[in-house]
């Protein structure tokens, strides 16, 4: 849709008048109104996810969350063809960067605040997510289909080691009582953000969280598993430095460590790289992956020793 037609659609369906419109991604725009107000306009494919987010945001107290706002005519979202558009305030700030200690700490503090604010919120028919290790198993299946890249550039040993390690730790994780943990989280009405990548934290005068498309009623432990995995590369896979963040209680430590030992982040970033069709060569990416994988071995060793002691 051309910009002029798109502006006309926004006004007709939402009474939203735009003076400026800048693409952020193919499905996200930053817009400005005649009153100099700035918003983020985002396209979605699934209305059920939007309804859950709206129900959630309307019950959330003033928080670290950047929620949706209604269009000027009062609509929660507007539809064009099979897609749905939402509006949220634009936060003028910088994305956090997990390479810096201050930003890692800020993300952890903000995430904890979100979990506290979200606790006990109820929505009608909350969307149920599959158990995380089942999703990770599917990711491993997709990863296996990329073996030809590793063979082409001489990294078959790396490929086999990643697959073997991932399978081993997925099997161990699958034996833990996750359904009981999910049941307890359901009773306590815990919520997770679902994607704690650094770009979903924006620092202004405070730090805010954005993009709640993966919001779900799940154990908060799941967000800390993902956050730990995302911190690790910036800690040079130093297990002791990761433990120092005290993301989880001692009672949850065994679960957390076992889940973090599954190198699903390696699979995720590799699949993202292939999907982007990056200008960086596959050979250079795999060379870096191999160096980082070797560094990761010390983390595996220390984490396994810790598990034996608890």
UniProtKB/TrEMBL annotation:
Gene3D superfamilies: 3.90.1200.10. This is Aminoglycoside phosphotransferase domain-containing protein. PANTHER family: COTS-RELATED PROTEIN, SPORE COAT PROTEIN I. GO terms for cellular component: endospore-forming forespore. Residues 27-227 form the Aminoglycoside phosphotransferase domain. It comes from Lentibacillus populi. Pfam families: APH. It comes from the Bacteria.
């Amino acid at each position: 849709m051309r910009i002029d037609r798109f502006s006309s659609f926004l006004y007709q369906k939402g009474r939203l008048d735009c003076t400026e419109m800048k693409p952020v991604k193919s499905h996200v725009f930053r817009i400005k109104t005649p009153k100099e107000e700035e918003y983020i306009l985002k396209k979605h494919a699934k209305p059920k996810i939007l309804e859950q987010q709206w129900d959630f945001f309307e019950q959330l107290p003033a928080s670290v969350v950047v929620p949706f706002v209604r269009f000027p005519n009062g609509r929660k979202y507007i539809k064009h063809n099979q897609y749905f558009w939402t509006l949220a305030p634009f936060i003028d700030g910088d994305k956090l960067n997990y390479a810096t200690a201050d930003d890692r700490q800020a993300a952890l503090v903000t995430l904890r605040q979100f979990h506290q604010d979200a606790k006990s919120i109820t929505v009608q028919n909350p969307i149920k997510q599959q158990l995380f290790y089942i999703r990770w198993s599917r990711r491993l299946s997709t990863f296996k289909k990329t073996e030809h890249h590793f063979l082409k550039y001489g990294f078959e040993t790396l490929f086999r080691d990643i697959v073997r390690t991932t399978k081993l730790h997925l099997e161990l994780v699958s034996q833990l009582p996750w359904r009981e943990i999910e049941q307890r989280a359901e009773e306590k009405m815990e919520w997770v953000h679902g994607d704690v990548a650094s770009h979903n934290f924006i620092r202004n005068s405070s730090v805010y969280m954005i993009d709640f498309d993966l919001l779900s009623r799940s154990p908060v432990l799941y967000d800390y598993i993902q956050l730990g995995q995302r911190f690790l590369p910036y800690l040079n896979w130093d297990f002791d430095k990761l433990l120092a963040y005290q993301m989880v209680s001692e009672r949850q430590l065994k679960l957390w460590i076992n889940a973090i030992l599954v190198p699903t982040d390696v699979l995720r970033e590799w699949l993202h790289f292939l999907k982007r069709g990056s200008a960086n060569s596959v050979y250079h990416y795999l060379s870096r992956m191999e160096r980082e994988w070797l560094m990761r071995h010390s983390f595996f060793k220390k984490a396994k020793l810790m598990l034996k002691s608890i």
